[in-house]
């Protein structure tokens, strides 16, 4: 059984990173950064400089550290291309290269993108239409890019993309759930908190369960990557699939719990839900990879190629809490 908690160094990193994000990515700051104008540009530059000074782009290529950072960035909705740029940095040792594998759009501001076509991997200059997503973020439509071929494993890029995008969605959805629970705990009707009604509490509890499953799958994939030195594609795809459905479920459930208030621009709820919708729409679809997993498992001749679906597939250490209790 793997230790379901993040390593201590990953949590220390998250605490330090959150100290920066709480200052530069408050809901008020995010609203400003969505708009056009000099103040928006200044806010983004301040955030970029703070994260550069922090060393976000120079973190060691350790899966638990990078994944935990993605969770924190998602929880604060930080408009930085960390999730997109990290796969190329880890696999290709290339900076400022967006992950365009199996994607139609990438964040603007990254001058190059890594793309794949027919098993070929190439790095190409980005030249495409810039538009705003539903979340207000600036994207580039990359279309069919051709560039300089590089020696890289396209599945390794896919795996890192799935893992980091899952982590980002888990962070955002958990933050949204906390916001929703806080609201229904404070809002009163008929002399009691709205959250005491079963029609409100039960869907939120189901959301928490779904998000916990996505969180554990994400941590499991990061744990395996730390053990083996490479992110397992199937584990990362399972995490991405669960994070995509669970985060969308969270967005819908919290909006229902807040009623019409959640749809107003004054509410922080829409900041999270719009980004969750946009991120899940832009991410690569994990279902083809899960289809390969299903076919591999259904064939007796190949099913032994799939490992680590269960905690007893290898000699995982006991959870840290179990060892400490003993």
Automatic annotation (TrEMBL):
SUPFAM superfamilies named among the record's database cross-references: Acyl-CoA dehydrogenase C-terminal domain-like
Keywords: FAD, Flavoprotein, Oxidoreductase
Cross-referenced Gene3D superfamilies: Butyryl-CoA Dehydrogenase, subunit A, domain 3
Pfam families, alphabetized: Acyl-CoA_dh_1
Domain Acyl-CoA dehydrogenase/oxidase C-terminal residues, every copy: 166-279
UniProt-listed InterPro entries: AcylCo_DH-like_C (IPR036250), AcylCo_DH/oxidase_C (IPR009075)
GO MF assignments: acyl-CoA dehydrogenase activity
Protein name listed in UniProt: Acyl-CoA dehydrogenase/oxidase C-terminal domain-containing protein
